[in-house]
Design goal:
The protein is of the alpha+beta class. It has two domains: 159 residues, Nucleoside Triphosphate Pyrophosphohydrolase; 131 residues, Nucleoside Triphosphate Pyrophosphohydrolase. It is built from seven helices and 14 strands. Strands 8, 9, 10, 11, 12, 13 and 14 form a seven-stranded mixed β-sheet that branches. Strands 1, 3, 4, 5 and 6 form a five-stranded mixed β-sheet that branches. β12 and β13 form a beta hairpin. The relative contact order is 0.14.
């Protein structure tokens, strides 16, 4: 379950993006601010707004809410409100989480928060907050699904917000295959910490899309600067791939090949344990994350003299 602090943080972040909705969500905000004897002063539900490439919205005929959106109340074991929404999609439509990806416009933030009076048995009269998260359809689902045009969405406030979402999947993560003129590759030893991708492994530097990133190249240049103070001498797209995140969502990734010459021990590393150069022959002996070995070997083969 989610703490009051978690929900208040999520609401505050939402209102920073949608300040005109402060009055609409005043009851929810007030309930989260007041000291209550009950652990859940707001009855939270979490819904999914899934958009396909034809800009249609996934409809769940058997959804418990009248909105027709897949939605559910949180359960113990749900990692986050977003994870609850993903569970609802699978349970109510049969579409697995791996067929979905995040949108660049909203990433993990809710596209909409809808208030309403609710019947909360633990706190009668407490408000409801339906947290709605947007996803794109990354793969054609094997199961039959019901879709409706975005223009037919009954909720006016939500209909306006999905207008700019085109359903086109784009890379939301960028990584750099950094090499030098000696043919070595710069790898990043990640922290041994729960909740992160490939903990305790050697991997590529990189990270996820953030507001202000207009292209994957913007993302990787920002990440290299923030994480290690690296400014590559040359940068070019190498390939696109897909990975799964901690929630099971598909994450489209653009891999860049980046030429950089320097001493990694002098870099201001802000995340992880260390950076080090490795020749391709040594990389296979490391504990690696994801497809790092394959990427290094593929790039090294291309660099070999014909």
């Amino acid at each position: 379950m989610f703490s009051r602090t978690d929900l208040r943080t999520l609401l505050d972040s939402y209102l920073l993006r949608h300040p005109t909705e402060s009055a609409r969500l005043a009851t929810v905000a007030a309930a989260l601010d007041v000291a209550h004897s009950t652990p859940d002063p707001v009855l939270v539900t979490c819904s999914a707004v899934v958009i396909d490439r034809a800009r249609r919205i996934l409809h769940a005929p058997n959804a418990p809410a009248s909105t027709g959106l897949p939605g559910a109340k949180p359960r113990d074991g749900d990692r986050s409100p977003l994870a609850t929404a993903l569970r609802a999609v699978h349970e109510q439509t049969g579409i697995p989480t791996s067929d979905l990806c995040l949108t660049p416009q909203h990433v993990r933030a809710p596209i909409d928060i809808a208030p309403g009076p609710g019947a909360n048995s633990r706190a009668p009269g407490a408000p409801i907050a339906d947290l709605r998260f947007a996803f794109y359809l990354a793969h054609t689902p094997s199961t039959a699904a019901h879709w409706q045009p975005a223009a037919d969405v009954a909720l006016a406030e939500l209909r306006a917000k999905v207008t700019g979402l085109d359903g086109q999947v784009t890379p939301l993560n960028a990584s750099a295959l950094i090499y030098n003129q000696r043919g070595e590759y710069l790898l990043h030893l990640r922290d041994m910490r729960e909740g992160i991708w490939t903990p305790g492994c050697w991997a590529l530097l990189g990270g996820g899309h953030e507001p202000g990133d207009h292209t994957p190249q913007d993302t990787i240049l920002r990440e290299l600067k923030e994480e290690a103070g690296i400014a590559p001498q040359r940068l070019e797209a190498f390939l696109d791939e897909e990975v799964r995140d901690a929630d099971g969502l598909t994450v489209p990734v653009r891999i860049f090949a980046a030429l950089w010459e320097g001493d990694p021990s002098r870099l201001p590393l802000t995340e992880g344990v260390m950076l080090a150069w490795f020749p391709p022959a040594t990389v296979s002996r490391l504990r690696l994350g994801g497809g790092t070995l394959d990427l290094v070997q593929r790039h090294a083969r291309l660099a070999e003299p014909a």
